Amino acid sequence: MIAAKPILEAQGLTKHFRTGGAVSQRVVKALQDASFQLYPGKVTALVGESGSGKSTTARLLARLYEPTAGQIIYAGRDTVEDKGRSKLLKYRSEVQMIFQDPFSSLNPVHSISYHLKRPLQIHRKAQGRQMTEKVHDLLHTVALTPPADYTPKYPHQLSGGQRQRVAIARALAVEPKVILADEPISMLDVSIRMGILNLMAKLRDEQNLAFLYVTHDLASARYFADETMVMYAGHIVESGGSEELTQDPQHPYTQLLLSAVPDPARGLRTQETEIAGEVPSLSEVGEGCPFAARCPHVMSRCREAMPPVTRLSETRWVRCYLFDEA
Amino acid sequence: MRFILRRLGFYLIALLVSVTLNFMIPRLMSGDPVQLMFARFQGRMDPRAIESLYETFGFVQGPLHEQYFTYLSHLLQGDLGVSIANFPIPVTEVIAVGLGWTLRLVGLATVIAFSAGIFLGIRAAWRRGRFADSVILPITGLLSAFPYFWLAMLVLYFFALGLGWFPLGHAYSLDIHQDWSSPEYLSSVLHHMILPATTIVLTAIGGWMLGMRNNMISVLSEDYITMAQAKGLSDRRVMYTYAARNAILPSLTGFAMSLGFVLGGALLTEIVFSYPGVGYTLLTAVNTRDYPLMQGVFLMITVAVLVANLLADTMYVLLDPRVRAA
Amino acid sequence: QDDGIPRGGIVTVSHEAFSVVLRNFSPFAPTQNPASQAFIYEPLMVWNEVDGEIIPWLATGFVWSDDLLTLTFNIREGVMWNDGETFDANDVLYTMNLTREFPALDRGAVWAFLDSVELLDDYTIQFNLGEVYSLADVLIAQTRPVPEHIWSELDDPVTFVDDDPVATGPFSVVCRLEDQVFELCANPLYWQEGRPYVDAIRYPAYPGNEQSTLALINGDIDWGGHFIPDVETTYAAADPDNFNFYYWPGGATVNLYMNTTKAPYDDVAFRRAVSQAIDYNAVVNIGMYGYTIPSDPTGLGPRFEGWASQEALERAAELGLNEYAPSAAAATLDEAGYLDVNGDGFRELPNGDPMSMNVQVVNGWTDWVTSVQIISQNLQDIGVNAQVVTPEFGEWLNNLQTGDYDISIGWSSSGYTPWNYYRDSLDSSLLGADNIANATSWSRWFSDDADALLAAFTATADPDEQFQVLSDLQMLFVENVPLVPLFPGPTWYQWNTQQFTGFPTADNYYTQGSPWSRDSNSRLLVAVNIHCIDDTACGQE
Amino acid sequence: MTQPMPTFDQARTDAEPLLSVRDLVVEYHTQRGLVRAADHVSFDLHRNEVFGLAGESGCGKSTVAHAITRILKPPAHIAGGQVLFDEVDVLKLNDDQLRDIRWRRISIVFQSAMNALSPVLTVGTQIADALQAHENGTAQMTRRQVLDRARELLDLVGIDPDRVNSYPHQLSGGMRQRVVIAIALALNPELIVMDEPTTALDVVVQKQIMDQIRELRNQFGFSILFISHDLSLMVEFSDRVGIMYAGELVEVAPSQAIFNDPQHPYTVRLMNSFPTLSGPRVELFGIPGSPPDLITPPPGCRFHPRCDVALAGRCQTERPGLQPIGARHMAACHLLDDKIVNKEDAS
Amino acid sequence: MSTVEQPQTAVQPAGATAAPQRAFPRLPLPNWLRSILGNRKAAIGLVILSFFVFVAVFAPLIAPTQNPNRMVARPVQAPSAEYILGTTRQGQDVFVQIVHGTQVSMAVGFTTGTVVMAIAIIIGITAGYIGGIFDELLSLAMNIVLIIPALPLIIVVAGFIDRPGPLTIVVVLSLISWAYGARVLRAQTLTLRNSDFVAAARVVGEPTWRIVLFEILPNMTSLVVSSWIGAVLYAILTQASLEFIGLGDPNISSWGTILYWAQNNAALLTNAWWTFIPPGVCIALVGFSLTLINYGIDEITNPRLRREPKVKAA
Ligand SMILES: Nc1ncnc2c1ncn2[C@@H]1O[C@H](COP(=O)(O)OP(=O)(O)OP(=O)(O)O)[C@@H](O)[C@H]1O
Ligand SMILES: Nc1ncnc2c1ncn2[C@@H]1O[C@H](COP(=O)(O)OP(=O)(O)OP(=O)(O)O)[C@@H](O)[C@H]1O
Ligand SMILES: [Mg+2]
Ligand SMILES: [Mg+2]
Q1: pTM higher than the cut 0.90
Q2: What value does the mean pLDDT of chain E take?
Q3: CATH superfamily of the domain spanning A8-323
Q4: Measured between alpha carbons, how far is residue C80 from residues C143, C539, D139 in Å?
């Protein structure tokens, strides 16, 4: 697993949003000091509750936001300073993104073929007659067949799952190496979710793509991702192999999260974990561990500084003083 | 309260801008008021007299910024200068007479139009396709498409000149002495207000009604309305406390914005119904290039609109708890 | 009083547009309520425009010295200010000195020719002129004295807002002043025995003609003075017995001015052709609703009939001036070389350059706008490319004064004699150093002959001599056509005899009837003459 | 949360059902045509039971819930069937009778609490409104008493009672949902219809709320019609589950049976559509295709276009009815006819 | 400056496809006319409007004249076979004036509406899309222009321009009336800017100008159209008012000036109704047709506003 070199890497990635008017500014610390790697042919999941900063992470990597601090290393090179359209265009031909809501990520006024042709044109992947062929190929890849049925349609004429497939096809059009998928299935019906996940898994395997899979559904992370990172209030608190992490959570927050997931297979009504408190507001988090307020094992130093990364194994680390030998 | 403070800040800026605009406009206009006045006497005034008039009128020479600051400092002292056309009466006095009448008439008519429009809008949305919705709504729509003055004149000729039900003009019967404590005078004022106010109401009501109806229809499909109904609340309670309270909010902003419009539009009412007021004063001031008066009226109208907006904002804050916290 | 004249009643007057009442009755206010010019502060003498007589009022008469350099006025005795103080020559002297000290108050511009004023006794005052100026008497006679005992106490008479006037006039008591109406009540101390007959004059606010017309038709107004379209059908027909109107065509002549500093207006032949091209009857009947008559070529009008020079009129007829004769006009242009050489339907300048012109008229002055529309249509008919433009008043005036126009309709001056008409249009001294054409010298047509004649007129008080000078001026005028007289300005005047009588009528037009004329105070004659038709009509309150 | 919940088996199975839905048909009149969002839906709900209704988005779950509480609005229209609540047909009640049972006997918790609370009224007012609208139920309560009761209710759902004066926007999503539940509890109803009460919430909050509901049910013993598309939660929380597909109820069974032994091909595939946290990691497939357009539903069995075991001919033309296939287990599928026969044979 | 932004009724997501699902209003041009005509109100409005557009376009053919204000006949004739709408006090043919007036009034209305919308689009979208301090300033400007009383300002500015006429009116109205549209468009742009499809377009590498023109703008079609119609209506009414109070060019034949002259000639007092009634009715009809079209657009984009189909008794 470690053998391959990471294709995309975040180093100390931090994003602070400034909100409010000129009078009273508030800083939302949406992402703090995040470091992780994405590998070709691997899916890395990012799970956490709503507002914990998952989308922010994905959008930072997609260069939709400028990071406040940190590096985004693509193929060994920091790309944060790459600005201007041509440099970004280069980056974007390698890193693509899929959005949560297939209803709003396709422009209702454009046809499916427009959506697929644009990236081909922008990144000069095809021209003229080739273009149509290429569009059809893409639709084939995402199992929208026969392609000719779909090209003239508009997004509203497709179902959610079909739309999400179009979105995937659009991302694939530029032949990227990395795909950032921000909750790609959460808006879809249960019955079609697996189709999309399986499609992405197929792409990962066939095209050796690296995926960042953002989700709030731990079970799907277990199913789809090779590695999983758990995020809480802007911090990645635990990371490790998906199976390992879900079966044997270490960080108190991960434990809490897992215990909250309804799971009929685990037997009915067995879990009885008292959960108190709520996710802190991101504009109010202080220096310490953001989970301190809810943590059953809280210690005084938890409130003073964010615990450092403690490596538990080759692939596994956690940020919690419970594991800090010092 | 932060909301109100912000708005206050905005009004201050708006005031400054309009004051500046006010200062600039006469300096861009052609036509010298003293020359014009002289011309009106058809050449019988001695040039020496004109010279000294320039001085008396207080035409400040000198660099523009100096003039501007003199203007501002005069304004701060409540000194709007002396009306040229009504020399030597101070502008404030010229305006004072008209402003009261304009505010009374327009204020009353606007409040009536607004309340009636809101009320009818509520009814129309509540009972779709019934009388208010299918008969009154199109009629008010048609009425608001009529040129105001045209409708007003027809009304005047028909009801005042033809049928003699209403007076032909003026704000009160000239046979009654102006005395705000006399019921006879008050009823005369009301009687004289009926026609002009009705025409304003007739042409304005359609907009409010349609806006309110549409907002109301949107609100009615909200879950909280269904929930209120499911709770078994009376129709009245649901309609007013739950639906209308929410639906009125957008109209309220519109209401504030429309005041400037209505105050300005009062000009036509004043002309058609020989009603006293600032609108006509403004028109005369422009025609005679009575700059101080023109500036004064314009400033007064602007201030009145700003104050009305502030009131509407306050209302807004009272009605919408969400902005209170913001 | 047992003169049999019923007393009482409130006469309702409509005059110029105003929408709210303002409290100022100062006789010096640059834009006064016409009321205050006559009914409150009275003049020394009243000039009756209709017969040209000067009627003794606060002064009983005046005498010129033989050298025409001093003028002595006798002030009436027994006149009281409405606060009970006595009025005498001291007040006149005070007023004269006030206007000298504050030029802004010198509305009659008397200090242009006056040297000094001195008191001979309490009821005699002498005016010393710097040079001979034979029109000084009328101008001084119109001075309206203010009470020294009040005005001398003021800080600044120029900005004095006179809301409770102390004056001598028949209606000098401001007994009601509200937002939309003011009333001037009869002065109980008035010097004319038993006058005025009515209790008060009421001025309601009417923002425009439309509104006063409605009120007139409704019988709300007793005495009106404004334009009404189709007055017979709209107004008079509503109550033929009582709703009367008479539009005396004695106002100052309205002219067509041409910018004679530019081609083709510098060419007298062109100007003559314009004079021949206009359909004066259409202008008067359509533009002016038939409320006036076409002007004669000298521009003097019926009021100055006595001054008319037959010689000049004959010459004008010879030249075909002021006659609607399109073919003659065309011929004149042909002859002068204005031909349509390029065949576009419009004539070119004799040198072949295209010729087109804007005819200016003030926006909103609809009677004039229509007149100008007719005129431009007339000019187009003879192949002159004329278009109507309607700048706002300010720009229009500015254009005329700076000479930035082609042709324009415009007013002229009227006065006690026709001299003012010619002086204000032709006197070269009116062209200011800054090239501003003052008064009505907008045609910018000047000549030494004209200047000399104008000076000669005021240098003598001899009627025959003056007549001769004026004849020469008329001849000069028709020969050169510096401007084209269109029609004498009608004076709008309506009266309602449902309640009041005593107004000038068409048959007995004893003086100018309009309640608001700027030129004279003759409405004072009407005001002291109006009375109820009978004791019941005015419903004594 | 000490006592385990009494399961359905321990409940009074023999008693008359509290709610009995019979052949409910609901239609929406739209510009595009008639949408039959509930087509002959029948099920029973017993006292003290949690009955779950699951299915894909748009299959008609909310429609059924709203029909039962009679809060459907135009263009919806109840085209047939009966909703017997305590043996009274709710669909036949007039406005007054309806008002009488509403909230006092049946209350409802909406899908999204954000939208179920008016943003401009305080939480207290909205609770008080429910109390005061039913004077006969809550007697003549004074303003004070009403507010006290509101505070009590908030306390019950684990919210600081001082929040009565808060506005909805001042509360977090979870708190708002609790407020809505508190309002639903206000008059001690016998049945609470819960239409996806936690869908908009995070798992942790969802867990808190579901625990709370469970505890309250222990305390007050009301029945719940529980609607969700989250099958895990559904199975965990409900006693019995009904699976809906395209406006039809295709299978009804105790939740364990649905989870362990689904019978209808749709249920089978649905159960194979979501990954679980525990247990082996098996490959999941989902269901190919998408739910049908209800304006032009497929003839015969509505699931047949997506069904890989559909019988040629019969499934395309003949509509299967809901049939018992085991103890308290019903399903609507032609394939199961054999099973029924088999079972009958066996017995 | 964040004032309270209100949802615009015109932009509510249309539930035309499936109600519980989120869908954006879709108004691609090919269907544009069809959906308008499918709505009864809009269709009636469109028919009335087309009539006037037809009259305006073919005015020279319908009533050939060199100058519609030429005095051609005996004054104040009642409508007759020769003069369908009679003549004015000046002997002008009212029918000819109205026909040519249609041209002027409609031209002013539509030009102004278009200029206003152009300004509103540029300012609204820039403010909404670029955001930051730029947005703060532009929003401030919008709110100020909105709050400053329009008609007085128009009168003052019209006075300042001096030479009145249709062009002046277009310029003045455009300068003053853009703010409302800009505000609405800004709010909508803000929403759209944060939408996923814009983010997706950026990720794909679309340049900013293309995002604004091809991704955002087409999604605001209905909003732009209804604001445009609103602006046209406002321009036509305001033009008439300005001309009526004498701030127009009396030589031009437009509905407002015909009314101005009728008023000056005391048309109602002399019973010359044919000079006063027809222009007013024309304005009202055009105004009403525009209002109807806007109702229609509202209903098309927000299906909730539609009259629901009649439900047959069960
Ligand atoms: N453009 C922005 N401006 C200001 N704050 C933002 C912005 N985008 C996100 N935030 C804030 O940053 C925090 C993290 O947001 P983010 O969208 O990354 O969360 P998330 O984990 O993806 O949540 P969800 O599951 O709801 O999508 C939130 O508090 C959010 O309010
Ligand atoms: N107001 C409406 N007008 C027209 N059709 C409607 C309306 N409301 C719902 N429908 C249709 O009725 C069907 C059932 O809708 P319903 O809301 O009951 O589904 P649901 O199962 O509750 O879905 P979800 O899980 O998304 O809440 C859907 O196909 C929908 O298209
Ligand atoms: Mg997210
Ligand atoms: Mg639902």
Answers
A1: no
A2: 80
A3: P-loop containing nucleotide triphosphate hydrolases (3.40.50.300)
A4: 17, 30, 88
